[in-house]
Queue: 3 jobs
Job 1
Amino acid sequence: MKTDIQIANEASIEPIVKIASSINIAEEDLELFGRYKAKLSDSLWDKVKHKNNGKLVLVTAINPTPAGEGKTTITVGLGQAMGKLGINAMIALREPSLGPCMGIKGGAAGGGYAQVIPMEDINLHFTGDIHAVSIAHNLLSALLDNHLQQGNDLNIDTRQIVWKRVMDMNDRALRNTIVGLGGRLQGVPREDGFMISVASEVMAILCLANDLEDLKRRLGEIIVAYNFEGAPVTAHDLKAEGAMAALLKDAIKPNIVQTLENTPVIIHGGPFANIAHGCNSIRATKYALKLADLVITEAGFGADLGAEKFLDIKCTKAGFKPDAIVLVATIRALKYNGGVQKSDLSQENVEAVRKGFVNLEKHIENLNKYKVPVVVTLNSFVTDSDKEIAYVKDACEKMGCEFALAQVWQKGGIGGVDLAKKVLHTLENKVSHFQPLYDINDTIKNKIKKIATEIYGAQDVKYTAKASKSIKKIEELGLSNLPVCIAKTQYSLSDNPKLLGRPSNFDITVSEISISAGAEFIVVLTGDVMTMPGLPKKPSAESIDINKDGVITGLF
């Protein structure tokens, strides 16, 4: 069996200028990064901004399992399938982070015969956007520590500095650090730490900003610390936003690449799906909606995290109204949720599928609350039995959902034609009446409880003393009328990763709350969520190699 990168290397890749011309983008509106990738220029936006928007389809999934769900693979395959049907479709994705790529997850550009290429570039440095975010973020850290060293005119309380440093790699040893050691000339000693770059508020801002001016304004509003009187100290107070925006002047421009079947793809931004909102940039989606009749995008992790944030944060802020949602599941994942061990997932077990279906059922119910039509698709595996597939199909249709089996990993676009037809049928025959889950002007605790009880299925929400104190602080700052971005485990609907299926009789415990004033949302931490992941016992990096001809292997 060929690996993903072998399939990608054998693909017939077209110059990006040719791909762009297929959707009426002139070469003069591209900023080329070699032959096969480019950025979309601001001049292009001026040409297309008056066009009508295409239809918007979100791809999401049930809670992730070790068996894998293939959400990006389905997204790419669905876009390729639309091309087979002659539909002017465009795919809009996030950029992969190097941390998960070198850690446990591997590449994130789809899989099999439903991939985005050049996949090795996309999975590694791509066009440098994440590096630009890292540098802009760490510039603010450097300016902050320099301000302390040069006399601390802003009266910053070093015990109340909330701005950590970042790097785009899983490195648990950097989660908690001490900086400024070595004597008076080396800085002011204080506690610090690192997050992974995609968890940076700078990344969230990049993906939520409308343009360069909006980006600079938001960067200036980042709260980095509090002074001894308890007042916030911002990046603007440190005179940092101008230089930060300058470092991001190219990173804010969306990137265009292609699928294995030469379907155009915009990839831009990569906010963590826990600590941030887990969606590609507003700018990327806006470009795609003007350039295509149908835009297929995705949100990180399961629908309880990524889709909820896409719908309640991104769509609310950008004014997007999704026309349909594709919910991805696999027979293997349903059996895992039904209590089957990973080693036994290849064996037919209709009863386990029935037990595990409750997870899919809950996600369908959740998405229906947004009043957007739902299409369920099973990402096909050769071990799936006809009886198992038939059970899921019947159960989904009883819930009023269109259902389709997708074989895009094995067959590419042709394997997604049935799914594409079901999506098109839904768009033509079911009307979306999209509405957010909660009122943005409700109290912080009410917004959190709405998500916890209605999306997760919790009984109640418990708060640590630290979290309650933070809520009071946010209210005093007049920033409570922002959406909430809840970070919790992706593996369960609850905040306990071991509770599979459809947990009940549980509470959500909020351990910490902070304000991302520039991104304009409130971050709510639950459980043991890490903003700097660690590497597993056998990191994916150990399998990645490059030969004397520059051919990379091991990237999934």
Job 2
Amino acid sequence: MPAADIQTERILVIDFGSQTTQLIARRIRETGVYCEIHPFDVDTEFVKTFSPRGVVLSGGPETVVGEGTPRIPDGVFDLGVPVLGICYGMQAMAMAFGGEVQSSPEREFGRARVVNRGGRLLSGLDDELDVWMSHGDKVTELPKGFVISASTPSAPIAAVHHEDRPLFGLQFHPEVTHTVAGNEMFRRFVFELCGCKGLWTAENIIDDAVNRIREQVGDDKVILGLSGGVDSSVVAALLSQAIGEQLVCVFVDNGLLRKNEREEVETAFVQKDERGLNLVVVDAADEFVERLSGVEDPEEKRKIIGMTFIEVFEREAKKHDGVSWLAQGTIYPDVIESAASKFGKAHVIKSHHNVGGLPERMQLSLVEPLRELFKDEVRQIGLALGLSHDRVFRHPFPGPGLAVRIMGEVRQTYLDVLREADEIFLDELRRADLYNSVSQAFVVYLPVRSVGVVGDSRRYEHVVALRAVETTDFMTADWAALPYDVLGRVANRIVNEISGISRVVYDVSSKPPATIEWE
């Protein structure tokens, strides 16, 4: 199939700043239809040349009432394609056609039940629909030609559609899981209303990516920093399929990895010899740990690790002649967040360890085959490429590794203890069939000591904390309510099997206000 075919069917998602805009795009992608997110202030020419089959207007934190608030880009309604407005998007559409929106004295937030009055988007669904509301403003007067599709006692106009034109509005959020029929609404929108067929599949994505990689790099060599994480593993498998021996993978053992991480990567990409990867393993553990000696500040640790990685990677890259390209595992959320940064600045919670400084220093061109994909799509093509389920669905691991799971100074003895404790925690989760039920789980080494008793001896050793969370997007997370017996087994094993730990505690903080990682 020609490379462009899978993106011929495309939906344009206009972002008004909602926390759930990425969920909208993910729901559309899950139906098998390609879509892109672009900010509300894109120009008319872009809207026209993008040539979407349909447009979705997201929710947003602003009030649509008043001057200077975000408006729908010019040209959207001139395309003649179906438009779906969600929450703020519905209100903005109503105002654009002459309707009225007012601030509601009764804010709706959370689960709600709407009465379904039909219309092309909702007809045939249940008479009453469980949905998720999050709004203060509401449409109080419909524009000419619009009729009500659903209502609640506090929001009589909870969904609308135009009698003649393919215009639809939902005051609730179909993208969140609490809206039970949300996936069906998106399916109807892209297939029945926009006329898409569903070309965005894992197999088609792989074929498309392979063709584009070959066209992009030609006969040149490509170097990849293979960390063993999901993104870099999928990039390695994809590039290997596309260009074979032209790919050089460099795995840097920084001494900050999980137990057996190096061996597992070598087994997955070398010993099985299924992908024919040219994998170079660089043992730089002593170099990293030595540079971290005496450093306690988490940001300073991250900077040291990042710079050391660049130096080690650059040293290794110079050994390989003919390398013209640097492969990176950039994924679509990274692209979205980078594009959105010009519309508003967020506080820096922590810096991210990446190889972003390498291209300029090394004068290499970038190849980023995952930059159009969400994480769940990356996992699906990883499976389709033959990577193991365990590797594709492994929990996230921070770039700086165990260094940011040791509070304060990093020492080799601390790393050795933490590696063993972390392995015990994950092992017990797998034994209890809970590993895939939580989104991320790990152990944190704390810089405090407590008294313990082992046999007849008094022990004054360090404390570790267990952390397990449940999340869909990692922007918010709830602590996982693990069974007491599982926590008990983990604690007993850690204290009894590892010298240097006297006490185990469990972190019951959600995000926000806490972050998932401790540093």
Job 3
Amino acid sequence: MNLSPRTARLALVAAMALPWLAAPGSGAAQPVPAAAPTASPRIGLALSGGGARGLAHVGVLKVLEELRVPIHCVTGTSMGAIVGATFAAGTPPAEMEKTVLAADWAEIFRDRPPRDEISVRRKIDDYKTLFAPEFGVKDGGLALPKGVIAGVSIESFFRGLAAPALGIYDFDNLPVPFRALATDIETGEAVVIDHGNVAQAMRASMSVPGAIAPVEIDGRLLVDGGIANNLPIDEARRLCADVVIAVNISTPPMKRSEITSALSVVGQLINFLGKQTVDDQIKSLGSRDVLIAPDLGNISSSTFDRSADAIRIGEEATRAMAESLKRYSLPPAQFAALRAKQVADRRELGTVDEIRFEGLERMNPEVLRSLVRSQPGEPLTEEKVGADLRRIFGRGGFEGISYHIVGDAGPRAMVIEPREKSWGPNFLRFGLGLASDFSGENQFNALVQYRKTWLNRLGGEWLTELQVGQNTFIHSEFYQPVNEAGQWFVAPYFTVGQLTRGVFIDDDKVADYKVRLAQAGVDAGAVLGTWGQLRLGPVWARVDANVDTGSPVLPSVKENTAGLRAALFVDQTDNAFFAREGFGLAASAYAAMESFGSAGDYQRVEALFRGAKSWGPHTLNLSVSGGSDLGSDMPPYEAFMLGGPLRLSAYRVGQFTGREFAFGRLMYYNRILPLPDLLGSGVYAGGSLEVGHIRDRFDGRPSPGTLWSASVFLGADTFAGPGYLGVGGSESGNWTVYLLLGVP
């Protein structure tokens, strides 16, 4: 016979009561106990913060369950709030352990969404190697984000942990009543979070100041609760507890040698601030209470790769306190009945009748709506909604994003709440590029980018860039979407600047060729989702080119060039420079026409394809490019160039120029050292095989034929862009040591 869960629980309670009850009218004698049984105490669990060390709480919960110790309420701070909220929402400790061990913590703390979900304009910025951070230009000064990490990926992970609590906003109504502790960064006061979004409460409780952006709840700006109350024993008593089981995994102070960054300084201060509150809370424990203090040794607050060790140590510490804990054990049937009420299945999001945006001040919600794949009337999933939120966040302009569902008693709506950057909407960034072959040929460029966003309801953006160095220019573009979906746009622009190119005879540089350029144009284009962009438009330019120093190998030119330009940009790689998966394509075509005012007719086409594929830690990256003037006698200032780091590494920077080229490169690299997201993605060891061909040289010299080159390098993907230090060689005996930083 199949019983419903509710009927089964009632049957279990009835079975437990049978020894004390007789059937009506049976006439059976009733045993009279000597004294009424003493009621079991209500037990509250208080979990401290401590970053990755806090995963020991999972081991504690596992053993409490083995010992059949009931938990009637939970309070937690920081990682204690995360583990405590997950348990309170209805997740069994064993399932929690599986989730923790399977989690990719590096991705959870990596704030950027997957690159294929980032807007095309922000992907293009990647190839300019602009530094982090991004400064806001506001009230006549510069402003910075409130945290290095916005916490979008973190909150998405927490929503998965809290899925059984979906739709519960009063924490007293969770399967196990719960409180999270945070700190009001304005007043320094402890804030007890007892209602709202469970995932957001987790996020607020662990927002380390300076590292992770604070969370605003009920008008208060909240950060890590460890500052104000890192072991909330007092709150457990207020919530329900006759007896408190306190678990203290607080991080011990770091040694001087371990304080190596601004973030470690902040962490040390939080440790000191939290220690006093922990000591005071522990002093309040009585003889009935139990303190569990796992000895986590050298497991630090950031070593999430030692999750299994932390859980094991939590188990061992709890078993060591088994005698003190067993006095609170329940009989098996009674404990099973309690846990049957406290364990909850993951709730499905179901369907909604409406999807709407709230909290936007500058941005048009209709522009963002086109990025949402979830639809009213269709079953929602956390995975699909999470992808929608990452896609919106990837558009830029937001410091955070969340959602909630309202209207369970009537029409249901999913409310998406993007939080616009408080330091926006105007932004300033800097970039730097350097290339050297240590043979006298160096290129250096410094870049400043100023971007004014949301100039109108369709998302108009004004971008201005100033670069100084080998190539000096000022470029300005007004990018204007023409529909709310942002699929179509127009973009008038102008560029004024100067390019400097070396002129070589064999391996010797004999001159510098300078090209002064004043250019203006207007493009019409289409945005191809988040994976590409197509542009087409007229362009007019005035060119003044001449040999600045050295032998007059190339002719002086003063003329106009004008015509039509088309450009296609596609990018589906997971990293701009050290891609592990994906492909990209960049192609352009220019037709100079006398009918547009050009001094002559000619054509110039160029294309680059690249793709990456990985097997475990090993990556192969293939790049193929080529260009031609299609036999149209293209002028020398439009020349194609080869030579330099990773473009025939054994040769000088820009050593070969001509009207037609072909180039191929196969790179192998292996990440030998991961880096925190704040610093980049990692340090790589690798090598390259390169082949190139260039013909129709402007100096009239014969083509050098097919050129081969190879290199080995140590590379790094950093917050300041890519870096390579390598050695290149060729079959002809050429070799060079090269340094490449950013994009010169």
